[in-house]
Here is the input.
Amino acid sequence: MTSSAPNSFRALPDPDGHFGNFGGRFVAETLMPLILELEQAYKDAKADPAFKKEMDYYLRHYVGRENPLYFAERLTEELGGAKIYFKREDLNHTGAHKINNCIGQILLAKRMGKTRIIAETGAGQHGVATATVCARFGLPCTVYMGSKDIERQSPNVFRMRLLGAEVKPVVSGSNSLKDAMNEALRDWVTNVEDTFYIIGTAAGPHPYPEMVRDFQSVIGNEARRQIMEAENRLPDQVIASVGGGSNAIGLFHPFLDDKGVEVVGVEAAGHGVHTGKHAASLSAGKPGVLHGNRTYLLMDDDGQIKEADSISAGLDYPGIGPEHSWLKDIGRARYEPITDKEALAAFKLCSELEGIIPALECSHAIAQIMKEAPKMGKDKIILMCLSGRGDKDIFTVAEALGVEL
Amino acid sequence: MSDAIIGGQDRIAKRFAKLKEEGRAGLVTFITAGDPDPETSFEILKQLPDAGADIIELGMPFTDPMADGPAIQEASLRALAAGMHMRKTLSIVRGFRDQDHDTPIILMGYYNPIYIYGVAEFLEDARNAGVDGLIVVDLPPEEDAELCIPTVEKGLSFIRLTTPTSDDKRLPKLVQNTSGFVYYVSVAGVTGAGSASNEQIVEAMGRLRRHTDLPIAVGFGIKTAAQAADVAKQADAAVVGSAIVSKIAESLDENGKATDKTASMVTGLVRELANGVRNARK
Here is the structure.
């Protein structure tokens, strides 16, 4: 550790929402009073034991926490190196980590007296989680989804509609997640009085990156306790896939001050970083400003945002949460690219060896483990966030493998 | 010092002084630089003052204009598809300045293209090109250190958007560090959406006047000469954007290319709007 390293890696953001040079509040003035109101409401909620108690209640009885930390024995044997543990976010209600954050945000929305919920979604997991909590708490819900994603994630679109949400196809720009986020912001700026915007990832204007991280930190807090129970020590590496990066920051954050724990994020390299068709903003992007925060982005020399490309709709975003950008720049975490092809191989291997069909998103992390675990000693421990179940992806995978369903 | 690099605050102040002398409100027109293509856009720009534009807002195209409605989003995408970029935007301004020394030009857009250009270099180049001020939608006062302060230090105006959500508590923060004029966005929403009622505008103007002596321009949702005239009765200037940009879209051929009607359709609308504004207080 160099002398310039901070005393703690867990003390940010600063009061203006900065993680070093990243983060901030780059939004239209119409939204500023709302963002400030949200920041205050979140501060108050955090300090209120009743809010925590309510949140814990729903996480336990509705989401089904705590979920297991599972020793992936056959995958460990197959790779022949480090012991591999999965934090089973796929076993949550709705099948992914997204619900952790949605429970937190909808309880906050209720507390603030908001009567209408909007959200953006890529793969549809966050849309489903948002539609779910809206059904549970009786609030009308509008989900913006790129028309391209609606096509490739039709089961999730149907789920959202079953749950009573209105799914609005977005046909502007590149018709994917970033455009859905633009459209949700346009809705919010138009309906400032009654609407709460549930952002699905640890990005956007302050306080979202902090708030989403806090709500997702239940992943790392549980995993830290569970690995101590299982192994009586901390892991050597924590690893997770990053799109916007909410499951990753949720896993990483409780481990950031544990010097012996290596932190690895895995980005979607699509067809390969060299091809330009990917979503690897940390590996191949540069810092810029979009959607309310400064962070690493995919863009051209004129500052125009590029389309991201990944087989996994959940990683198909040209940016990344600002805290990841900071962790990369200060060297506390490293970020590795994994291609569609590598993720598919990992998807198959995990299904065959562990009887767990993983989401394509976290298949990227499994693929990175396939590269690293064999080089690590058998006494080493890797802890991965298995962020979601892969049932939603079977059509995409079948198509990629040339199988007709 | 050549005319081109007269401090931007000057040209804007002079223009509003002249409007006051004439006892009328001004017309602020918005087009996106490079829409539908760089050449046509330059032609339109050059004709705007004669058609009656008192101040020109020139949009800097951006792929993700999240505070704009469909009309201006599409204008951005048309411009980018036609090869527009920031350096060309500045060269269009330079070309305009060669022939027009008095009409203020305000660049309007989003922060990322400026940030990537480099703030210091951008301000230097913008000032030399003859830009008078900036409106950057995604830079609230909380981020003033990024661009607002450097802009003001460079002698250009940083024009702030105030909105229906800007209350008496928020307004002092909004008018601090701002200059040129204050832009009142009359409805909460994206550009081109619905318009505010007269009563709402009167109420908002009263609120704003308590906090600033700067001229106040009112925009969002103004589509017709009559609406522009209504606003011109209350405000120091009326801003029209989406309606003009929609006129450009309407004039294109089936391949989305400019036609020989493009410039004249735009200037035709601007003439109508200018008539409305100029006769509002008579």
